């Protein structure tokens, strides 16, 4: 198992936001996490990537326990890439300079090697002609695709996507989702938090439905979207007008 989360609990100032989360992810698997706003989806990703401390439970990558005092999170984050709703590109750097920064500073790659990989990835996501552009010269969709490439530059074992289309205009959403769909076809292991239900149905190997900080249901997309097990999931899907049993 590539990633294992066991009995994870997280609280803010005594308020429980995640309760007894158990989640296992196999290499090459695409997990889509859905649920109402504020249910703990993004917090779960931030816990996995060490951006939030947990109250109890465990997180392991390739059998190595991550939530321990001496974890080198800088090293771990080379294996666990994360793309946020906000692009977080450095505005004073060109796209290429944004992409080269981490490989050269963290992995100590030589510039030529990193640049060759960056150029290939930019071509792959349709940004081959934007390497010298600054973030302010890009559309929202282009910035998000550049952010995805920046994460891929570290050659992670698993990618976490946190509502990466939420800040985009509707016409730009498709171009970002197409990049993620291609990564899925190529076998990239991913955990994706999204409100795009049709996208979730298309890309997921398994859908995990969270409500109130707990995993209420998880299943294949075929079963989850056509015949969910729980009444809570049925009510949630009815909001999106999926044809689920009443």
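^ structure tokens above, recovered residues below v
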């Amino acid at each position: 198992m590539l990633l294992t989360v066991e009995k994870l609990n997280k609280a803010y100032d005594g308020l429980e936001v995640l309760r007894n989360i158990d989640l296992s992810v196999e290499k090459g698997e695409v997990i889509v996490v859905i649920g109402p706003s504020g249910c703990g989806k993004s917090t779960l990703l931030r816990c996995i990537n060490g951006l939030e401390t947990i109250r109890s439970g465990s997180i392991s990558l390739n059998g190595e326990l991550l939530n321990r005092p001496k974890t080198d999170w800088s090293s771990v984050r080379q294996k666990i890439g994360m793309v946020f709703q906000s692009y977080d590109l450095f505005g004073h750097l060109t796209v290429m300079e944004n992409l080269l920064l981490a490989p050269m500073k963290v992995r100590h790659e030589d510039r030529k090697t990193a640049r060759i990989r960056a150029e290939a990835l930019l071509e792959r996501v349709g940004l081959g002609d934007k390497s010298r552009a600054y973030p302010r010269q890009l559309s929202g969709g282009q910035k998000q695709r550049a952010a995805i490439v920046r994460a891929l530059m570290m050659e992670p074992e698993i990618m976490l996507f946190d509502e990466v289309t939420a800040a985009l205009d509707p016409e730009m959403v498709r171009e970002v989702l197409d990049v993620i769909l291609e990564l899925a076809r190529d076998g990239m292991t991913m955990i994706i938090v999204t409100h795009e239900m049709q996208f979730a149905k298309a890309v997921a190997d398994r859908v995990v439905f969270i409500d109130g900080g707990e995993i209420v249901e998880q299943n294949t997309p075929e079963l989850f979207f056509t015949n969910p097990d729980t009444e809570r999931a049925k009510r949630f899907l009815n909001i999106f007008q999926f044809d689920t049993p009443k």
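The beta strands are 3-12, 15-25, 30-34, 56-61, 64-65, 80-83, 158-162, 189-193, 206-211, 214-219.
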